[in-house]
Amino acid sequence: MPAVLIDDVHKRFGNLEVLKGVSLTVEPGQVVALIGRSGSGKSTLLRCINGLEAIQSGRIEVAGHIVDQDPKHLRELRKDVGIVFQSYNLFPHLTVSQNIMLSPRITQNVPQAQAETLAREVLAQVGLSEKFDSYPDNLSGGQQQRVAIARSLAMRPKVMLFDEVTSALDPELTGEVLLVMEKLAKGGMTMLLVTHEMNFARNVASTTIFMHQGKIWESGPSRELFSNPQTPELRNFVSAGAH
Amino acid sequence: MSLQFESVLAETDIILDGIMLTIGLSASAIVLGLIFAVLLVALRTLAGRWAGIAVDCYVELMRNTPFLVQLFMIFFGLPLVGIRMSGTQAALLAMTLNLAAYATEIIRAGVDSIHKSQLEAGLSLALSKRQVFQYVVLQPAFARVWPALSSQFVLMMLASSICSFISVQELSGAAAIIEQRTFRSFETYIIVTVIYLLLALSLKVFLLWLGQRLFAPVSGLARVDVKAEAA
Amino acid sequence: MTTFGLPEALFILRAAGWTLVLTSVAFILGGLIGGVFAIMRLSQVAALRRFAAGYILVIQSIPVLMVLFMSYYGLSAMGVELPPFLAAAASLSIYVSAYLAEIWRGSIQSVPFQQWEASASLALTRGQQYRYIILPQAIRISLPPTVGFLVQLVKNTSIVSVVGFVELSRAGQLVNNATFQPFQIFTLVALIYFAICFPLSRLSRHLEQVMNASRPH
Q1: C 129-158 residues with CB below 8 A of A?
Q2: Domains in chain A, CATH or no CATH each
Q3: What's the pTM?
Q4: A82/C123 Cβ within 8 A
Q5: Which of A31, B34, B159, B168 gives 20 to 30 Å between its CA and that of B117?
């Protein structure tokens, strides 16, 4: 059974159709990169997968859950599907460890002591053990984003979604975040990521999908796709240096 | 509980007079209060340090005491120093002074939001200090704070009901008379409350329309978020 | 005719105590009702949203005096005779609820919507989102306007004298009726109000400056 199954998904914002029949599958352990210009629908597609956006027609299954808009189903789904946002979205009134422990404590009833162990574990995974008691505002953007990844990991997700997680970062800070993601990928995490980092897509993702005008325009094994684009749109996009 | 509106509705004349007086008092207080407020802001901005402190004291005193007490001071206190006035005159004076204080605070916030470089630009175009204040500072400031001023005007209209405490026969005062004549208190106040509601909503719509007419060319400016406060 | 002396001044001071009691009761009761209306105003159920919006609009568009008369005579028309203090507290609570609901709705809405998304993505229920994520941040944002509104409330307690409750303003009137020294009496009354309200106004302004200085992100 695929980890993510998307079948003929259509999504409109008012009169504007942003997804015009998208289908794809992601196998367990696979890393898939979504690339394309802004407005191509890639971020919307990602947000549909954990139900942040509702779809008009088609079918999405992820980690064994069918995505609908029933709040109860969505909560069960989101225990298995993590998402990391471009703007980190840490909770500014909570410390790093509180950010991480909150959901395990209250949605999965993990006891406090165990939650703390969990928090230390995921913080070590992203290389921020010493920030356990810091507040998000005292961290750099790159560190905040790594905490956001740790916060998702603490849910023990089966699938991780990354929505342009390095786009808001200064260039010198993107490396540390990408490194954490690469480690995750090597550890066998199923990952679907929207990214502008072409090198990362080429080197870390096994499959890259190029979206254009709400459709999957071209897709295939990352190295082949980048070295030998079939459509003029992708050729343009790759040669323009990804924007 | 049975409601009977007939006897109350028979007193249409008193109600209409009350409505007219509420509208008249509110409109006059808004116009006069606004003029006074602009003078105070000008004084605070253009005159010396002590004038500014005096204006601030006035504003703080008015904003931190109830309108009712201000009304009593004027109505009961002024005659002792030889200034006699009717209830309606006292009401108008109290409302004007009260509104002026709030409007001063709001307009001041608008004036403070005008960037210093605008003043310098104005002065370097050979405008006088007064001209700069009028054209470069005041007009854009007004446009920015118009929503806050509008809320303040509505609150003033609602607060005019307090003038019935000194037997002014505006809408609430009219209600008190009808209540005594008909013994239909609840019915009377239902009707009067609905009238206030309609007056307030109409005033809101009118002020919105007026703001769009007056400030259309500069309405694209960022608004200054000043809270209106009950009198 | 008596003159305005120490006993009269003490009478007025004691009445100022009742102004504070009335303010506190109306603030707490009105705050509880207002909190419910603020949440309703932001509910996902359209009917609740509209009902709360209508309630807030109506209460904010009629004089506090009318809220007072309506609840006082409305209750007595239904055969409920409330003692003056309860009638005053009840109607002021209704007034407070509409204004606080609106202030708090604004505060809740100024928490960035990404906080809703991030917490939803961590499988929190809507109640948990409010309790752990949104309200702690909204309460901080709401402090300056809430304290500012408290000043309005203190001043508006002055009108409950019409239902016969003796608070600060009513005490001033009573002493004035007996002594007819309005300047001295109402100056004292005004000064007491000022002594309560001015520090609150300053606190509100101070909180706002602190908030602006430490805006996260």
Answers
A1: 132-133, 136-137, 140
A2: 4-239 (3.40.50.300)
A3: 0.88
A4: no
A5: B34
